[in-house]
Amino acid sequence: MNRYKVGDKVRVIAPYGCQAGKKGEVLTINRVSGYLPGDRELRFEESRGYCFESGDHLELCEKTLDNLEPGDILIEEDGDERKVIDVLPNSALLSDTKNHDEAFMFYSIAELKDQGWTVKQDSPAEEVTELSVADIEEKLGLQSGRLRGKKD
C-alpha cells in the first residue's frame, strides 16, 4: 500500500533520508515516481530535494479518510460526530453518535467518501519556546549564574 500521494502535506520528522527539508518543515507532495511501495521517490512544491517513501522521516500533517486510526473523530455532513473504533484495510468501525465507546456500524472507506464524511483535524499544537537559564538571564539583563529556578 502506498503511504503518500500527490497533494499530501507531510512534515519532516527526521532529516536523515530526506534531502528536501529541515526537521519540522511542512512540504506538499507534487510528484511521486517509481512503482514499488517504499521505493517511490517523492518530490515537493517547496523544495528541489526529494525523499524516498520508505523510512520514518516523514509524517502526514492532515488526517484523511485514507489514513484513519482508531480514536479519530469523523464528522457527517449534518455535523454529527462518530469515533473510529477500529480500522480494517478498506473499512472502519464507527461508534454511536451519543456514546463514542459503543460500536455502531462498519463503513467502507468508499462509502464514507461518497457520503461526504470528513475527519476532524487535531488542534494545532501550541508552539513551545525552549530557553536555557543563560538565555533567560541574558533577556532579563542578569549577571550570569545569578538566576535560580524554584518549584511551584
Describe this structure in words.
By secondary structure, the protein is mainly beta. The chain folds into two domains: 9-60; 63-147, no CATH class. It is built from two helices and ten strands, in the order E-E-E-E-E-E-E-E-E-H-E-H. The strands form two sheets. Strands 4-3-2-1-5 form a five-stranded antiparallel beta sheet, with no helix packed on it. A hairpin with a 7-residue loop joins strand 2 and strand 3 (41-44). The radius of gyration is 21 Å and the shape is flat. The model has no long low-confidence stretch (mean pLDDT 82).
Labels describing this entry:
10 strands; about 10% helix; about 150 residues; 2 domains; five-stranded antiparallel beta sheet; 2 helices; mainly beta
Describe the structure concisely for a colleague.
This protein has 152 residues and is mainly beta. The chain has two helices and ten strands.
**Sheet/helix structural class:** mainly beta
Distance between the termini: 50 Å
- What's the order of the H and E elements? EEEEEEEEEHEH
| Low-confidence runs of at least 5 consecutive residues | none
Query: How many structural domains can be distinguished in the coordinates?
Result: 2
What's the shape? flat
Integer-rounded radius of gyration: 21 Å
Largest sheet: 5 strands, antiparallel
How many DSSP H or I helices? 2
* Spatial strand arrangement across the major sheet: 4-3-2-1-5
**What is the mean pLDDT?**
82
Q: Strand share of the residues?
A: 25-35%
Q: What percent of the residues sit in helical stretches (DSSP H or I)? A: under 10%
Number of strands: 10
